């Protein structure tokens, strides 16, 4: 019975039996069997649902991070340097540049309608051909930049859009990091949404650096093609050169690397042709870069004109402090200008009141040794000349020194005692009161004492003697005793009030001193020029100023204020000016000035201080007023005597070198102008000397006149700051102040000038006698007219 095979156990698999086709591996026979293949492991594959969910989560995370970054990143605002722009100052013609004010940043922003199409086309063709289509960023550009940072290959960085470059320019963030690129990209997106493409392109071209210190296409046009080049008329070729060197402007400047500049120019012109901005014919006709100029940018604060530019800047800053003067900024904001730095970099167009021809004449005069001698002149002597338009108060010319980097401003900042240039203020106060006329007479004897204040006329010994003389004669000869007497009668506070209204105030502690008529207070030359300009125009006070108008771009920001700050009685002013005209006529203290101008009327006044610390001539015609001053300033501002130099044998006085400077300048300034007449006085009054009595004066006021004035006035400087000037044929001169001695009057000449002394206060009988042209009771005068030679005059 056949047997059956045993059933296999559940715990073990049946042994494999070799088949005829399979060799036994242990024997290697051909008929052995192949062992079974090992089982493969099955890989886990996510389901499509899981893949979609993961991708969706990743997108959500990226979008969320992007949204958070976008929400937390602010729209860029301009940094300080990006807001700076060059302020340009012009002469009064509005076209001739006086100076450009900058601190190393030269920027002249253009409005969108001013930006040349050539520059826009060149920038788009060279920098960002998708500018008008993209949203402010380039994904491929950001990718290259990030990959360059990660791999340490900076050459791969770049590809930024114009919008991104603009963001970098205005934020000043130039860090090479992917975080900066990411932030920059977000800010570029925001800028693209907020502004039009034309606004962005204009702003970019206004802020990008072109080398040569020039920021923006406006400044670059002038830097490379000359100061007269108009950026609004920039040619395609010029634009191609400027835009071409943008990646490395300092290195690729044609003056530095002609080959690379040419290479970049060729590239940009080709790119502009490809985009259809220029024709092939134009490219072929202009194969080489256009010619450029060497950059010669002078430092604006140097030389005589530097003082004017400084004064302009300070005047505008003062407008910000006093009138809240505000201008716009490049980022659309506003700024109140209160500092000189802000003014210099506010991008203003300032037209001044300064006439270039007159300014050139002023500088030429002060550099002329015939007018302003150099032989023997101490290095510490300071000179000032300032010319003012009486109708407006605008400064027409100013010389305040050789160079503001080495010398102090002697006109707008420096000051000196006014001397007898203050006497017209007392005369005006008296005439305006209605109680005095030019015909009124006063005793001109010297010395005299008034309320304890001893006054002496200019001249040797007791000073020059006069009889009873009228106010015209007293003005022409600058007689101290008469003017102190007049000041006592009207009250010195009235003199102080007129001086204050005119803009040349006396010191607070001198408003009640009789000596204030003699100019004991220090004043700035520009203040005296303003004061006399009001006399020249008939009595309207206009603040002396330098700024005529201010524009920012095409927007007017300021126009000079021509409203008078004070007015005076016209007839009183006319009479004062009439008396001042006698100063420049024969016998006056500045007769040489009048003789130089013939029939042209000239009014003015000399002034020389005690010990000749300062010497003035301040004079005017109806259309132009000019003040000239010399003073000597030692270490720490200590006043020093002017001394004797420049061919003047005795001390420098108002009628010597200051009068010569004034004459030299005004001869040039008035050339070709009309001869204008001053208003007529209320009465023609002769300045001829009055008859005199015995040669020995009698003092009746005090038994022992004191040399020390009362009420706090001191002897010396305040004991009668006065005039002592020459310029007659005999070259007379002298020390013209309290107790000073006059120099030689010249051959046959006689010394004369201003110094103070006294006789007691006049009573009613004295005043009546004076009005009748009689000598004062108890006092007689000596002395007569000067001899035939030159006179030392105050």
What is the secondary structure topology, with strand pairs?
Layout: H1 48-72, H2 80-83, E1 87-90, E2 97-101, E3 106-107, H3 117-127, H4 139-151, H5 162-171, H6 178-194, H7 197-207, E4 214-215, H8 217-225, H9 236-244, H10 249-252, H11 258-274, H12 280-285, H13 304-323, E5 326-328, E6 334-336, H14 340-344, E7 349-352, H15 356-366, E8 381-388, E9 395-399, E10 416-417, H16 423-433, E11 441-443, E12 448-450, E13 453-455, E14 468-470, H17 471-476, H18 480-490, H19 492-502, E15 522-523, H20 525-536, E16 540-541, E17 547-552, E18 555-559, E19 566-567, H21 570-581, H22 591-597, E20 603-608, E21 614-621, E22 624-633, E23 639-640, H23 657-669, H24 764-771
Parallel strand pairs: 1-7, 3-4
Antiparallel strand pairs: 1-2, 5-6, 7-17, 8-9, 8-22, 10-15, 11-14, 12-13, 16-19, 17-18, 20-21, 21-22, 22-23
Helix pairs in contact: 3-9, 3-11, 4-6, 5-6, 5-7, 9-11, 15-23, 16-18, 16-19, 16-21, 18-19, 22-23
Overall description:
This protein has 794 residues and is an alpha+beta fold. Strands 8, 9, 20, 21, 22 and 23 form a six-stranded antiparallel beta sheet that branches.
Number of strands: 23
Distance between the termini: 172 Å
* Range of strand content: 5-15%
Helical content class: 25-40%
Whole-number average pLDDT? 79
Major beta sheet summary: 6 strands, antiparallel
| Gyration radius, rounded | 44 Å
**Poorly predicted segments:** 1-31, 173-178, 690-793
Oligomer: single chain
Number of helices: 24
The secondary structure category is: alpha+beta
What overall geometry do the principal axes of the alpha carbons give?
elongated
């Amino acid at each position: 019975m056949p047997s059956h095979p045993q059933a296999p156990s559940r715990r073990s698999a049946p042994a494999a039996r070799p088949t005829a086709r399979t060799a036994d591996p242990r024997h290697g026979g051909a008929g052995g069997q192949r062992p079974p293949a090992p089982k493969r492991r099955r890989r886990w594959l996510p389901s499509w649902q899981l893949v979609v969910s993961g991708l969706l989560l990743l997108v959500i995370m990226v979008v969320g991070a992007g949204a958070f970054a976008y929400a937390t990143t602010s729209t860029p605002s301009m940094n300080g340097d990006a807001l700076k722009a060059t302020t340009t100052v012009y002469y009064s013609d509005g076209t001739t540049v006086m100076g450009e004010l900058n601190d190393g940043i030269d920027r002249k922003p253009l409005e969108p309608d001013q930006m040349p199409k050539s520059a826009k086309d060149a920038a788009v063709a060279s920098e960002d051909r998708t500018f008008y289509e993209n949203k402010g960023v380039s994904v491929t550009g950001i990718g290259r930049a990030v990959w360059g940072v990660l791999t340490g290959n900076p050459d791969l960085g770049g590809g930024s859009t114009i919008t991104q470059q603009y963001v970098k320019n205005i934020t000043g963030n130039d860090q090479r990091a992917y975080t900066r690129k990411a932030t920059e990209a977000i800010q570029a997106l925001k800028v693209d949404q907020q502004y039009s493409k034309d606004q962005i392109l204009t702003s970019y071209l206004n802020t990008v650096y072109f080398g040569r210190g020039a920021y923006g296409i406006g400044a670059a046009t002038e830097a490379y093609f000359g100061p007269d080049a108009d950026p609004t008329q920039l040619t395609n070729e010029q634009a191609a050169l400027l835009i071409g060197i943008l990646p490395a402007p300092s290195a690729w400047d044609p003056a530095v690397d002609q080959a690379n500049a040419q290479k970049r120019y060729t590239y940009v012109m080709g790119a502009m042709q490809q985009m259809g901005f220029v024709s092939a014919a134009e490219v072929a006709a202009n194969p080489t870069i256009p010619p450029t100029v060497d950059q010669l940018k002078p430092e604006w604060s140097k030389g005589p004109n530097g003082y004017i530019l400084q004064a302009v800047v300070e005047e505008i800053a003062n407008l910000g402090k006093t009138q809240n003067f505000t201008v716009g900024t490049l980022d659309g904001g506003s700024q109140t200008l209160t500092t000189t730095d802000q003014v210099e970099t506010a991008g203003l167009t300032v037209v001044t009141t300064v006439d270039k021809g007159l300014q050139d004449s002023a500088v030429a005069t002060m550099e002329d040794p015939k007018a302003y001698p150099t032989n023997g002149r101490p290095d510490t002597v300071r000179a000032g000349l300032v010319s003012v338009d009486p109708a407006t108060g605008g400064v027409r010319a100013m010389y305040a020194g050789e160079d503001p980097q080495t010398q102090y401003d002697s006109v707008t900042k420096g000051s000196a005692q006014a001397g007898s240039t203050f006497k017209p203020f007392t005369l005006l106060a008296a005439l305006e009161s209605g109680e005095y006329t030019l015909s009124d007479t006063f005793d001109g004897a010297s010395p005299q004492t008034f309320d304890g204040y001893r006054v002496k006329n200019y001249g040797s010994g007791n000073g020059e003697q006069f009889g009873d003389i009228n106010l015209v004669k007293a003005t022409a000869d600058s007689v101290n005793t008469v003017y102190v007497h007049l000041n006592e009668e009207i009250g010195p506070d009235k003199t102080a009030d007129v001086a204050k209204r005119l803009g040349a105030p006396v010191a607070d502690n001198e408003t009640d001193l009789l000596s204030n008529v003699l100019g004991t207070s220090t004043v700035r030359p520009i203040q005296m020029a303003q004061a006399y300009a009001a006399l020249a125009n008939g009595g309207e006070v206009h603040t002396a100023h330098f700024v005529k108008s201010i524009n920012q771009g095409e927007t007017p920001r300021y126009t000079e204020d021509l409203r008078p700050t004070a007015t005076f009685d016209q007839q009183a002013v006319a009479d004062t000016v009439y008396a001042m005209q006698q100063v420049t006529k024969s016998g006056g203290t500045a007769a040489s000035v009048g003789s130089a101008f013939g029939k042209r009327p000239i009014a003015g006044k000399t002034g020389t201080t005690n010990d000749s610390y300062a010497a003035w001539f301040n004079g005017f015609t109806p259309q132009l007023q000019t003040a000239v001053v010399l003073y000597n300033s030692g270490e720490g501002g200590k006043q020093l005597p002017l001394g004797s130099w420049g061919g003047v044998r005795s001390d420098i006085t108002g009628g010597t070198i200051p009068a010569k400077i004034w004459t030299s300048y005004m001869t040039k300034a008035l050339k070709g102008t009309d001869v204008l007449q001053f208003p007529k006085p209320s009465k023609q009054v002769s300045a001829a000397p009055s008859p005199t009595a015995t040669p020995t004066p009698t003092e009746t006021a005090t038994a022992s006149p004191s040399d020390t004035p009362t009420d706090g006035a001191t002897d010396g400087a305040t004991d009668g700051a006065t005039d002592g000037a020459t310029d007659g044929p005999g070259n007379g001169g002298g020390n013209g102040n309290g107790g000073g001695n006059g120099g030689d009057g010249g051959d046959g000449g006689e010394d004369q000038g201003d110094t103070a002394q006294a006789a007691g206060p006049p009573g009613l009988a004295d005043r009546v006698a004076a009005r009748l042209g009689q000598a004062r009771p108890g006092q007689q005068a000596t002395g007569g007219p000067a001899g035939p030679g030159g006179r030392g005059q105050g």
